[in-house]
Amino acid sequence: MSKIARTFARTFARTFASDNNSGVHPEVLTAIAAVNTGHQVAYGDDDVTRRLEARFREVFGSQTESFLAFGGTGANILGLMSVMRPFHAVICSEWAHIHVDECGGPEKLTGSKLLDVPAPLGKLTPESVDTQYHGIGDYHHVQPRVVAITQNTELGTVYTREEVQALADYAHERNMMLHMDGARIANAAAALGCSLRQATADCGVDVLTFGGTKNGLMGAEAVLFFGPEAEQRAADFKFLRKQHAQLASKMRFLAVQFEALLAENALPLNALALNALALNASESAPLWLRNASHANAMAQLLSQEVQKIPALKLAYPTEANGVFVVVPRHLIEPLQQRCFFYMWNEKQSIARWMCSWDTTEEDVQGFVAMVKELL
Ligand SMILES: Cc1ncc(COP(=O)(O)O)c(C=O)c1O
């Protein structure tokens, strides 16, 4: 076995391929086990789901309607579908997950067109959205109804709260809504140093996909509707969710995961988990914040190390838990063989290295050492 292979075997229990590749946080597993007693009514009419609905209102504001789903793609599609009719359109970035990574699901299932616009750093602006806002009232033309953003973006950048508010204002002034794909909203809020509510409802988001899976849950996402019209907009959600196969029967096991993520007083971590985590946020912070700020800190570390290597170049600024790097082509295959990751852009030779809640400093340093050896 070569030296490199030994390094790999010792160091890479975890890779940088995706924050979906990490396991489930021990506190979440404990919480799941804790509700695994007796019987509870199925399909969300249970005590845990009711408690979570109340908790979502505490966290995001009293005018919050919440629903759980299994997957992020399903949650995005259902959130959009709830507020649209087939002749409506969504204006989104050229990189939007709903546009490039959901196999056409949003268009097929909503029946509505996605209008994508260039977004050099993954972000929309009122000016870029405006390029697709036309044909209003013209029945030959789809009617823009939703502006959809992703926070943090697919390119690892983070919208400031002012940027989100500006898009919300633009949309609201034109009878449109702001949808946020928050698959990594926890990472974005941690990066912005604000609460989940300040990062979403308070800057004008109308519909949020609140991602849990990438932040340490086993597989749970939430769709949240905010504001005075939340109840009316969410009215059909429960029918659409069942029709589109996103209704969990044993809902309490999804609900309790979010409860664990949002709980103020974290359950005690066992010693093993504490060692593995090298926590960055205070131990009493809610789990969403501890996990997200830790993943962000590991990405910062990786990004700093990358910037010390002359052969590598950052493709985009590192603002959350993803590091996007222009990699010499000859490095890609040997590196992928030792520690798998996805190429974000083959043509431009951009690799995507994602950090997770469980990424350690040792993982980062081991990976960087291997890159240097291969170079
Ligand atoms: C930006 C973004 N949105 C949504 C999702 C949710 O996808 P999934 O359906 O795999 O949970 C992902 C997952 O990779 C993502 O990166």
As residue ranges, the low-confidence spans are 1-10, 267-280
Which CATH architecture of the largest domain is right? 3-Layer(aba) Sandwich
Number of domains: 2
Largest sheet: 7 strands, mixed
The CATH topology of the largest domain corresponds to Aspartate Aminotransferase, domain 2
- The CATH C-level name of the largest domain is Alpha Beta
Q: CATH superfamily name of the largest domain? A: Type I PLP-dependent aspartate aminotransferase-like (Major domain)
State the share of residues found in helices, binned by percent: 40-55%
SS strand fraction: 15-25%
What is the H/E string? Answer: HHHEHEHHEHEHEHEEHHHHHEEHEEH
Rg over CA atoms, rounded to whole Å, is 21 Å
Helix-and-strand structural type: alpha/beta
| Measured distance between first and last alpha carbons | 19 Å
* Tally of separate helices: 16
